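Reader question, answered in our methods column.
A reader sent in the components of a multi-part assembly and asked whether the whole thing could be modeled at once rather than chain by chain. We filled in our standard form and ran it. Here is what they sent:
COMPLEX SIZE: two components
ENTRIES:
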Amino acid sequence: MKLKKLQAFFLFALFLTPGILVAQTAEEIITKHIEAHGGVEKWEKVEALKIKGRFTAFSLEKDFTSYKTKCGAYYSDLYLGEQHVFEGFNGKCGWTIDPWQEIEYARNINSSETNVFKQKAEFFTPFLNYKKKGHKVEYIGKENVDGEEMFVLKLTREDGKSEKWYLNTKTYLEYKCEAPWVDFAQPVPAEMYFDDFREVDGITVPFFIERTFWQRDRITQIESVELNPKIDKSLFTMPKRKEISKLTFMEGDWDVKLEFMGRRGTYRERGTTESCIKFASTNMLQEQISYENGFPNNLSINFTYDAGTKKYRIAAFNDFTSTFDMFQGELKDNVLVMEDTQISYSNKPNATRMCRQFTYTKIDNNQFTVENKVSTDEGKTWKPQARLTYTRKVEDTLSKK
Amino acid sequence: MKKTKLLFTICALLFSALLNHAHSQEAPNQEWNQFRGAQRSGSTDNVDLTSFTDKEPKLVWKKKLGDGFSEITISGGNIYTMISERKDSITGDEFIAAFDEKTGNEVWRTRVDNMFFDTFGDGPRSTPAIGEKNVYSLSSYGKLSANSKKDGNTIWQVDFMKEYGSKIPRWGFSSSPVIVGNNVIVEVGGTDSRAFMAFDKKTGKEVWKKGEGIATYNSPVHGKINDKECIIFANGRKVYSLTTAGDTLWTYNSPISNPTGMPIVFDGNKIFISAVRNPGFIVLEVNNNKANEISRGTSMKNDYSSSIYHDGYVYGFHVAALQCISVKTGEKKWTKRGYGKGSLIRIGDQLLVLSDKGKLIQVKATPEAYIELGNIQAINGKSWTAPSFANGKIYLRNLTEMACYELK
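And here is the structure of the entire assembly that came back:
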């Protein structure tokens, strides 16, 4: 009898253990929170969202459009004040075009921004399928915020960054969130407030979100939410800089006719080879080509664009010489001229140095020609050396190599 | 006899009420003759406004205006403010200008400087002070000018950058001058103890100089602490109290860095100072020319919009949330979101709040709860300039236009 009483006491004591109590309560709160947002069943049917509305930054209200997908991808076209900003995220990596940072092209986001983009990519509440996403949730307790009682939940994302969410104890909907944010790519703490909850095809979302960090104030006023819209997935991919995009004519697999200058001053055909040109990264086009001209030459040619000099650059690695050669030039009237006359590897003038030039001409979608010339007078006169004619491979002629 | 006495008493009371009413209309604080109004407190007393819902504000006029954030000051039938106008994409002019109070029509304008360009909004930030004959203004590039109220003729001009080695702050010289006796007192941010200076208002000649520090965005307060007339400057991380003759009464090393909002003097010897970064606000108490911090808190963080003190409570924009806090405890009494980084003034027992998008909201100045009495979309676009009030009319300004509404 005494033993039974002791067992009952321990069971009672165990029941009072905060861990168990807390775990049950957090789960229960989240269940009711998701129900308040329309319920798991409804949300399971949502693959993507298209959100349109008005976004206010620096007290200027402008249109915005956002897309979010179930797999955590996100894209938005918005204005920060007068500046047109674009941002995208594929669930792991993101990019932004933000003229406030005086960068006109898309750049990769840093780790603090990645955390922010993960927040932006959520279907409004991070508690939906939070375990599958790798989030952990801890119930902190109840707190009075602006005169209303709130459940306070601490959400820790899989990257270790945590947020504090305040859910109204009456409605179970979010009222406030404290989370790490960014301002000009630098981490700052932020507060978010949610209001004007409306139902859209059975799901409930906040149509008003205000975010403050430091002295900044950002207001999102949603005007429409479209469930499962058609989305062009390329939106999430970091866009190329417009200058490097002009070289996309080179992208692909090519048959290359090789011609070298003979002693009589005319080109002589020396067989063919293959070239594969593709983007090794968003803004770097890379060509792999091999040919023999007495000795084997395996080249890896990298094309980039430098905004400072407003010129294209080539860094070509030739394994025969085992070094990089640099060239720079411009694309004008559909002719790309790259040369090394402005490239110097020595402080001393070298009167005998030989400069090289590559001219890309006759450019169209299926063909282009590269002519190699040399100069011994710093580019005043050029002598042709070789000509490579690229013809795009068609499907059945693609090399199995 | 009794009837006669009663009639006489009623007549006397009515006459007295009429006199009081007339007095309230003509009282000096009914003019908004400098930054934040006659007392530099953003408040006007002795005015009872009817609810917007009972009587909607009537638009008197609305006019296009050159870019700027300078407040509108009102005196003697004219209104004065600072504006700027582009010549092309990189050059332009800054003006002090006078407009007819009744029509909003321009009376005169006088060029005071080059135009100040900024991605957050072009134009001057400082508000002119109106004297008896002249209007005193500080341009974005640090030129203090006196212009005739009558025709705008330049009486004198002092170039702070040229004369005193002052450096232009990020958003231009923004401090608003204050007239005290025969002097115009302003933050200069010059070298060699020329942080603050007084100039003879007739000649522009230097009267006194004091303090070390660069030009910031804070404007001097003129008031009384423990019944002694003083000027309060909050510059960098230091608060200065000076006599009107420029002698130091006390200084205080403040945890509040570079406040833009005006310090508020209340209860005869206390000062509320707030800025957007931690700790948010402090309250100083001054006794025997010594300032001590008696409280601090994070419940009010003013950015560029100044708070209002009323009956033991501070009403202001905590970054972008309109809030009421107890000045004693810092306890938040209520919060209202949705007005962005707005601004506010107090007219009697009401707050007139201008959202950062030009919505004018009438709110009861009470700590009990946020009680809205009505609102109108008064102007549109970026509205960062606090309203001005005089003679029953409210004057509003956004970046590119101004408007006048009759409230009574």
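What stands out: The interface with chain A takes residues 119-120, 276-277, 301, 303, 319-321, 332, 334-335, 337-338, 340-341, 356-357, 381-384 of chain B (CB under 8 Å). The radius of gyration of chain B is 21 Å.
Send us your own complexes using the same form.
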